[in-house]
Design a protein that fits this description.
By secondary structure, the chain is of the alpha/beta class. It is 45% helix and 13% strand. It has one domain (13-204): Carbonic anhydrase (Beta-carbonic Anhydrase, Chain A). Helix 5 packs across helix 6 (132-141).
Length: 206
Amino acid sequence: MTDTEPHGPGLSADEALQRLIEGNDRFLRGETHFPRFQKEVLANLAKGQKPYTTILGCSDSRVPPELIFDASFGELFVVRVAGNTASAEVMGSFQYAGSHLGTPLFVVLGHEGCGAVSAALETKFRGVQHLSRIQILVDSIMPAMPDFDPQLPPEVCLAQAVEANVRWTIRRLKETPEGQKRLAEGRIRIVGAIYEIETGRVRFLK
């Protein structure tokens, strides 16, 4: 695989973000356009892909980015892992999306009630140790956990921790050499969002 000049989808980061917002609005109204089977679309995609957004989301089965943003085939480059954590593999996927696909917008998508973040809180406040591979995942989330009062209601702690985890991942992405370079050039935008499972709404963070 050789590095190529980004070609991208011809959208700016702001235009890509607006498209996501509009897609989620359609999803909330029950007026989605996709998915629908279109042979001509698949035929074009066989020649290559030009997604307008790269999304890092959680593996949770209730949070499928293509559905909640009403996106069709080839529109989103999606990476999913429990807790939407930035592992080496995730970083490599993001680098590919930036260097080869030229997506202008990168979204870190967390969600309410995230089990991986909840497990990290259990380790932080109660010293709970999980199964070996799960603990490795939890340990990667631990630096994101805020130092708040553990006497707060559990749902408040979890909500704050979910948002903190998204912001931590964004920070890690922005600190990479590629992220710093492209942000300085104004070629990309990295944003965070929280999916509300009960309502279906995506809340983009300031």
